Amino acid sequence: MHWLLSLLLVLAPPQGPAGDSLLVELPGRSVVLEARDLAALPRDSVQWAYHGTAHWYVGVRLIAVLRRVGVPVDSLKGHDLAKRVVVEAADHYRVVFSLAEIAPGLGAREVLLADREDGRALPPPVGPWRLVVPADGSGARGVREVVALRVRDEP
Questions:
Q1: Are the beta carbons of 98 and 84 closer than 8 angstroms?
Q2: CA 47, CA 50: separation in Å to the nearest integer?
Q3: Torsions phi, psi of 102, nearest 5?
Q4: Tens digits of residue pLDDT in 132-145
């Protein structure tokens, strides 16, 4: 039964407000992704228990968003291993991931930029996007109202 719910959630189209955008800052340039840009990326789902209650989240993997804007996450080496991505919320709450932590073939940590919870669009003040990190025990990096991703070089 859980696999059927998971399949239905992955196939359900995102239904966030039409004007939602996500700023992605890269060294030397910025990209604004609209909800339709994110909706075109491969979708995934995870179950995550937050504050003791399990929910199904659907969205796109953070690694797919970074690939979409040209971050070389599949071939990290040298100075790229010191890069990080800062995820920022509307209230300026921020969390950090190293690119190596989430890159395939290295840390491969599962991080989902979700737009749906239990089959419904994320409402304010949680959405339009929420970061879901199932392996994090405390949920402290489960950022609500994600508005920006900032890829930074270590100084």
A1: yes
A2: 10
A3: -105, -10
A4: 999 887 788 999 99
Tokens 């990326």 sit on residue: 41
pLDDT of residue 18: 34
**Using CA of residue 129, residue 85, residue 152, residue 89, what is the dihedral sign?**
positive
Query: In one letter, which amino acid is 1?
Result: M
Domains, the chain, with CATH or none: 2-152 (3.90.420.10)
- Rounded to whole angstroms, what are the CA distances from 5 to 11, 47, 89? 10, 11, 29
Strands (E), 28-152: 29-34, 44-50, 53-61, 84-89, 94-98, 112-117, 120-121, 130-132, 146-152
Which pTM value belongs to this model? Answer: 0.84
Residue 12 pLDDT = 42
What is the pLDDT at residue 52? 81
Residue with tokens 């190596």: 100
User: What are the two backbone dihedrals, phi and then psi, of residue 91, each rounded to the nearest 5 degrees?
Assistant: -90, 10
